[in-house]
Each structure stands twice: as structure tokens, then as C-alpha cells.
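Usage

Read records sequentially. Each one opens with the input sequence:
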Amino acid sequence: MRSIARKTITAGATLVLAMSGAVLAAGPASAATNCYASGCNGLDPAATTCADDAVTVSTSGSLELRYSPSCRAAWGRDRYSVPGELLTVTNSAGQSYGVSSPSGGPLWTRMVNDADLTSQAKDTTANGWERTGSY
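and closes with the structure output:
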């Protein structure tokens, strides 16, 4: 009798843990959105799954052009922006997004479609500008 009770409790506990794990696992995944190519235009990469597989494909100083192979989208990022800096990303179809740094620190743009296109990031400060290569 003890053996049956132990198996029942173990099975019940396993089921409860499995269900709670599924609920916990679903929470963060449902908070992020997934997009593809032109569906990513204007989205924040940090609020999507695109940032998960992103790679830096071109750099110029602290300026980076980031690209997500799964989303086929690109964005500009400056790891050490300065107050007043304007960071933009533009694709070869003319789609562009910019963001200004109010206080310095990490800064990134919204995403642009990069499927069968090229993209480039540029930052402009009071001291001039720099630009990444195209990808």
C-alpha cells in the first residue's frame, strides 16, 4: 500500500512541477515578439527575439551594425554614446530610423528590413560623424 501511495505522490508532484515549468517557460517567451524582414521595421530589437541571435557585422569605433539572421533585420548600436548623439540605421530601400542619446551610455535604433537589402549605421555628434560599412 505504501508503494502505491508513494508512486501516486511522485507522479502528482512530477505533474505539478511539469505544469509549473511550462507556465514559467511560457512567460518570457510570450513577452518577446518574433518578426521577419519588413515585419521588423520600426520594432525595438530588445523587445523581440531578434536580439537572441544578433551578430555585429560592421564596426567603426564603438558604433556597430547589428544583424539578426533569423529575423533578417538590422539596427545600429553604440556601446558608448555621448549626450546629444544621433544614431541612425538606413537600409538600401531608404527605410531609416534614428534615436538621440539624452544622457550617454548604450544606445540602439529600431530595426530595418535587411532581407535582400544592405544596411548601414551612422552616428552624428557635435564633433563629427562616423559610419559603419554596409551589410
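Summary fields computed downstream for this record:
- The beta strands are 55-60, 63-68, 73-81, 86-91, 96-100, 105-108, 112-113, 119-125, 128-131.
- Helices lie at 2-31.
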